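Operator note (shift B, R.M.): manual run for Lysophospholipase L2 requested after the automated queue skipped it. Running by hand, logging everything below so the morning shift can see what happened. Input copied straight from the record, untouched. If output looks odd, do not overwrite the archive copy; leave it for review.
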Amino acid sequence: MNSDPGMARPVSDEMAGGTPHGTTNEPSGPPADSGWVPDRLGEGFYCRTLPLGEDPDGEGEVCATLVRYAPGRKQDPSARSDKPAVLWVHGMTDYFFADHVARYLTEAGFDFYAVDLRKCGRSHRPGQRWHYATDMSLYYPDLNAALDEIAALGHDRIAPLAHSTGGLIVALWIDWLRRTDRARHRLIPTAIFNSPWLDMMKVPRPVLRAATPLFDVVGRYFPTLPIPGGGLSAFGQSIHRDYYGEWDFDTTLKPIAGAEKYVGWVRAILTAQEQIWNRDVDLGMPCLTLCSLRSELGTGYRPTVDTADAVIDTHQTQQHAPHLSDAADVYILLGARHDVFLSRPAVRAEALAVTAQWLHSHVDGGGSQSPATADAAVIDGE
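Run finished. Output pasted below as returned.
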C-alpha cells in the first residue's frame, strides 16, 4: 500500500476546474468513437456523458457524467482493466474536482472514477435547478449507469467513495440493490462514506418529526417553492484559495455559500433520512465512515472552522453510521473538515492512508481488520 502523505496536495490551477470544460494538456486525445473526451481537470482525466432520458421532475433531458483518471500520454481511457475500482460520488452543491484523491488511490493500486450526478457539476444543463430532485431514488439510474460503465471496462470490484448527501444517496442505493438487484450488488464489495449526511442538523428530533408531515404536504404540491438556502459559506471559504483555503474549484459548479434549496428537495431528504433513523437500511457488506471529531455549525468563517465539520453534525453521523450494516466502522479524524479529503495536510494524508488501507483490506483480499490508529477513534458497528 502506498500511503505517502506527499501524494496529498492542493489542486493546481490546471487540475481543479480552472480550465474551461473540454480543454486539456494532453498531447493526444482518446479514440473518437470511445465516447470519452478530455476532462476539465487536465492531463490524464477523461469524461463521458451517460444519457438518462427525460427527467421525472420535468426539467428536460438529464444525464450523468463519468470521469476516469487514466494517466499516461497515450493511454486509451476506454481500455479494459481488471484492477479494483473506486467510484467517487460528490455531495450537495458539489462536483468532482479532488484530483489529488484520484492520483493517490491510483498510486495505491486502484483505478479511479467519479460521477457527477444529474443536474450537478458537469451534468447540469441550462434551465435546470442545481442539484434538484424530489426523490433520492431518482439518482439510482445515475449510479447504475456509472456502475455498468465501469463494469463494462472489466472491473468486477467497484467500491463507492461517497461524500455528504452523496453518502446518503449511496447508502440507500446499495440497500436497494441488495433487495432488488443482486447482480449489481455483487459488484460492490464495500463502501466508504466521507461525512455522510444521515440526519438533519440543528433540529431536535421531536421538532423534526412534527415538521416532517408539513414538508410532506407542501413538498408534494409545491415542490419548487424555494426556501432559505446556502449557509455553507464558512466551509466554502475555508477551502477555496480566494479566501482561506488551498483549493481552486469552479464556484459556478460549487458556489461558496451553496445552491438554492426547494421544499420538494427537503421533503426528499427527510424521507431518505427517515430510513436511516428507523434502521431500515442494510448495505449487506462492510463499510467505513470517515468523519470529523466535532462540528462547528451556524457561524461565519473563523480559524477553528478549519479543524471541524462546518456543514453537518458529526455526532449524528457517529450515532447512525454504525447501523448501516452489520460490519460498519466509523473512523473519527481529529481536525477534519466536512470533506475529510480537503482537510489540512496532515489530516487529509491520514484520511487518504486509511482509505487505501480499508480498500486493500476489503476489496483487494487483505482481510477485514479495522483501520484504527493511535491518532483516531473507531466506533465499531457491533
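Quick read of the result: Confidence is low (pLDDT under 50) at residues 1-31, 366-376. The radius of gyration is 19 Å.
Leaving this for review. - R.M.
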